[in-house]
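About this split. The held-out portion is used to measure sequence recovery: a designer receives only the structure tokens and must propose an amino acid at every position. Recovery is the fraction of positions where the proposal matches the reference. Here is one held-out target exactly as it appears in the evaluation file.
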């Protein structure tokens, strides 16, 4: 029986969604040079990324959020190196902090790009199920199903 349980979810998901970027599959993903990665990223953002991904990436790089974009990237990378059970706890705290800051009017950039909370909450729920199953990875599939009404949810 074929099993993908040992494949990393993120790269596998990108390979399945965008096979034209990775003609040799996982070998491409793991073995690209920095310049090839630059071209793959450029192609992805130019031709395939959802508008939401573009807006969020732009905000991380150039937004008025008060943090250094390189520091944000290091925070993300450090977090990704911790076990999923720890990341699940952290994202739960982030969700609580965000809703509280929004409720009391203390968002750092209320006019700036806001998270799509249904996506973040779906990730939290999927990670919780994975932790309960003693797994260290999760996926929520396409983000499209979480975008309907996302603007309404952000106004709550």
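Reference sequence for scoring:
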């Amino acid at each position: 029986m074929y099993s993908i349980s040992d494949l990393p979810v993120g790269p596998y998901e990108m390979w399945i969604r965008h096979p034209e970027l990775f003609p040799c599959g996982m070998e491409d993903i793991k073995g690209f040079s920095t310049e090839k990665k630059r071209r793959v990223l450029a192609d992805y953002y130019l031709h395939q990324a959802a508008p939401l991904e573009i807006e969020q990436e732009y905000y991380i790089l150039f937004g008025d959020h008060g943090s250094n974009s390189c520091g944000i990237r290091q925070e993300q990378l450090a977090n990704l190196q911790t076990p999923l059970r720890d990341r699940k706890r952290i994202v739960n705290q982030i969700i609580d902090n965000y809703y509280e800051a929004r409720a009391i009017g203390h968002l750092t950039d209320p006019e700036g790009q806001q998270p799509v909370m249904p996506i973040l909450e779906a990730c939290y729920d999927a990670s919780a199920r994975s932790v309960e199953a003693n797994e260290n990875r999760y996926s929520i599939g396409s983000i499209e199903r979480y975008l309907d009404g996302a603007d309404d949810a952000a106004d709550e």
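Annotator remark: The chain has nine helices and no strands.
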